[in-house]
Amino acid sequence: MTAESTVPTPAGRPRGLGPSPVSVLPQRAGAAGGGPRLPARRTAARPDSPLPLLVADGTAALPGSLMLTGAPHQPLLTALLVGTSLLLRPKPHPAAARPVSGVLDELPALCARIAVVWLALAALLAAYAPAHALSARTLLAGFLLHAATGCAGRGAVHRRRRRALSNRPRAALVVGPAATAQRVASALLRHPGCGVRPVGVVTDDPDGTTGLPVLSTGEEARRAVVQNGVRDVLAVAPAVRPRQAALLRTLAESGCTVWEVDADAHAHAGAPPPHAPAQHTQHTPHAPHRIAGFSCRPLEPASRRPGGAGKRMLDVTVSGVLLLLLSPLLLACAAVLRGVGGPGVLFRQERVGRDGGTFTLLKFRTHRPADERESATRWSVADDRRMPWFCRFLRRTSLDELLQLWNVFRGDMSLVGPRPERPYFVARFSQAYPGYAARHRAPGGITGLAQINGLRGDTSIEDRARFDNAYIDDWSLWQDVCILLRTAAALVRPTGS
């Protein structure tokens, strides 16, 4: 948790800090009026129909069922074999524009599922009709027939889909630095089998590059989307700029599938690609795909993050109950602070929240800055000896932060999330620390994963950004509950902020 601020930079000085725009997502068009205008929301690109693979998996069970001839209730057993095979199918990938798998890629999982089906059927027969239990030879023959037919059927479906992708590739825009974006686009054009055909490059620095048309304004990008029927957007990581990030969000909300492409991934790198356009999106929990050899993953608008309603309900319920229960304590703190420090017990400060929007954060006043510049640019006052004893007590026990429950109740913040910072420091840290701006995919919080790991006050900003992004990527409602419980336990042994 930060305070009214001092000290140039915490725990490790960033490199080359200078004045720069806040590299987080600007407010939505309409609030700021600066975003590109695109057509009203269209339906997202339809995913491949599951029917061909359903037919292939269901039909694959029929040749194997011939091995059940002579068993009692053979039609029922065949129906069980087909039904169980369909129930154990893998869950379809959520991205509409997923790469087509190959049957060899699926072979281990396919054989494992079929083996489970036949072993379960054999156990059922042995339990209810011991006289007709399947022999090892029958079990093996049924498994082999089922697996061979399943591989053949799925292989035929995948071949048909790959051929369709090659003949009718999906139009796409590539967003990012001009040279890198053109390199990615050229690779995609050299590999039409990936099913993606770039039609333009969106960049702020044309830089005299040649190749695909360079779109440098929102209006040009809008025309390209409408005229070419663009449904896929490839955001080259890192270095997506704020205006481009706003365009990505608008495209995602209008029905396009946004992919984050790591153009510089090394073969030995096992980590996911860096957070680049993630200011408006959230990484899906699936492993990265490959498009023309580039590591990529689909991104989803953070506003559509599963469980968002549950998180908001938890925030409203807990903050409302705590405000009622703690109101006597808050009034007592305000009265003592008024007597010790004079008028003005509330401290209001602009902070950056979700998607780069700003809000007014409330705290008990524990320090009186000399002027507005000191309030906006001073890093920490934790050891300021000018503070009265009661103010130091409030900071050491974190009681000065309790008024932020009102920010949570209003919807400015969440109980759990990245700690919101002032615009001045957001601009500096976003330039100096990779991934810092990506924290603003989620609303700010009173506490978070970074705070319960000791990253409060004058600690490493790089470490905070890493923990905050890990929290967002792995978010669950239960994780929020665990963080709140660990925060409550930490208050028993306060260390201050």
TrEMBL record:
<feature type="transmembrane region" description="Helical">
    <location>
        <begin position="110"/>
        <end position="129"/>
    </location>
</feature>
<dbReference type="InterPro" id="IPR017475">
    <property type="entry name" value="EPS_sugar_tfrase"/>
</dbReference>
<keyword id="KW-0472">Membrane</keyword>
<feature type="domain" description="Bacterial sugar transferase">
    <location>
        <begin position="311"/>
        <end position="492"/>
    </location>
</feature>
<keyword id="KW-1133">Transmembrane helix</keyword>
<dbReference type="Pfam" id="PF02397">
    <property type="entry name" value="Bac_transf"/>
</dbReference>
<feature type="transmembrane region" description="Helical">
    <location>
        <begin position="313"/>
        <end position="337"/>
    </location>
</feature>
<feature type="transmembrane region" description="Helical">
    <location>
        <begin position="71"/>
        <end position="89"/>
    </location>
</feature>
<dbReference type="Pfam" id="PF13727">
    <property type="entry name" value="CoA_binding_3"/>
</dbReference>
<keyword id="KW-0808">Transferase</keyword>
<feature type="transmembrane region" description="Helical">
    <location>
        <begin position="135"/>
        <end position="157"/>
    </location>
</feature>
<keyword id="KW-0812">Transmembrane</keyword>
<dbReference type="InterPro" id="IPR003362">
    <property type="entry name" value="Bact_transf"/>
</dbReference>
<comment type="similarity">
    <text>Belongs to the bacterial sugar transferase family.</text>
</comment>
<feature type="region of interest" description="Disordered">
    <location>
        <begin position="1"/>
        <end position="46"/>
    </location>
</feature>
<protein>
    <submittedName>
        <fullName>Exopolysaccharide biosynthesis polyprenyl glycosylphosphotransferase</fullName>
    </submittedName>
</protein>
